[in-house]
Amino acid sequence: MSMTLTHTRVDDWSAYELANQAMRLTVIPELGGKILTLDDARSGRSWLWRNPYLPLRTPEAGGVYIESFDSGGWDEVFPSVDPCAAGSVGGAWGDHAITDHGELWCRPWSVQACDGALKMFVDDPALPFRFERTLRLAPDEGPLTFDYTLVNQTEKPLPYIWATHPLIAIEPGMRIDVPPGVKATCTGGDGEGLPPLNQPFEWPHNGSHDLSCVPQRGQAGFAVKLFTEPMDHASVTLTPPDGSAALKLTMAAGAPHRVGMWLNYDGWSGAKTTHYFNAGIEPTTTPADRLDLSAADGAAAVLGPRGTVQWALRVELA
């Protein structure tokens, strides 16, 4: 089966569907470029979590993501996960206050659909950057590729954190694996029985916790954020307990080379609802969530004046 790219609608929003023999995904540019669904076309498994309490809404610049817009799917987070006060970052950001979960989810993306690829971008005069993401789905059972381009449109350095932000519809017994020998550190969390924090450990065993195995509902009651150490090709694989195809995310050579994870096992909700059961699997530039602090201590990525940087992510179902 060749790859198809089809214009469609989801409720009141224009959308695009990409499909091949292995996977099918739906993208809504108006909702911050959100990938709403990513399904295994053979087994029918829906890989992306949808929030049962927060419906899709047209985003608002300056809105609070976790309270009103954490509807699920796959978003892009840039230039910070946590909000930052006006003037706290400096450089190209000047006096700009940075929104919760960044400046991409809360803006409509422009679209160019051609040659079997879906190119989308944010180029807002109020912002110091242009962010571009092109989705390419190979024919037959081939992978999905995300090609990114970031441009600094100012004469000052642009500090940033980027993290791609798929929320996975986990289930008990699902495995989460990174390459053997990789170390990780849990940096924060909520709930009871948290794994030890700020102590590097070799994946997957942190104290008495085996973080590679999704627990039964009601057994954990915590949510924890962790980051891996740098890897040559940052990758993470999620394997269902029923033996169906695994989901694998791999960063290309020279790309951001860490994986962040938000493992939420009935431990947290930002919307004051019943706690969620999901996992954010997030290749990232930086082992932190606040850009102002990361810029101050030198951990943030920095793009020079008028600079351009490109990177790529591959997604496979195999």
Overall number of structural domains: 1
Radius of gyration: 19 Å
Strand order of the biggest β-sheet = 6-7-8-9-23-19-18-12
The portion of residues forming beta strands comes to: 35-45%
CATH architecture: Distorted Sandwich
Distance, first to last CA = 16 Å
How many individual helices? Answer: 2
- Write down how many β-strands occur, each being a DSSP E stretch of 2 or more residues: 23
CATH class: Mainly Beta
Low-confidence stretches: none
| SSE series | EEEEHEEEEEEEEEEEEEEEEEHEE
Structural class: mainly beta
Tell me, rounded to a whole number, the average pLDDT: 97
CATH topology: Beta-galactosidase, Chain A, domain 5
Describe, in plain words, how this protein is organized in 3D.
By secondary structure, this protein is mostly beta strands. The chain has one domain (4-317): Beta-galactosidase, Chain A, domain 5 (Distorted Sandwich), CATH 2.70.98.10. Helix content is 3%, strand content 42%. The chain is built from two helices and 23 strands. It has helices spanning 65-69, 291-296; strands at 4-10, 13-19, 23-28, 34-40, 74-77, 110-114, 117-122, 129-137, 144-152, 158-160, 163-168, 175-177, 183-191, 201-202, 205-206, 209-210, 222-228, 235-239, 247-251, 258-265, 277-284, 301-303, 308-317. The strands form five sheets. The chain has an eight-stranded antiparallel β-sheet, with no helix packed on it. The chain is globular.
Explain briefly what this protein structure is.
This protein is mainly beta and 318 residues long. It has a single domain (4-317), classed as Distorted Sandwich (Beta-galactosidase, Chain A, domain 5).
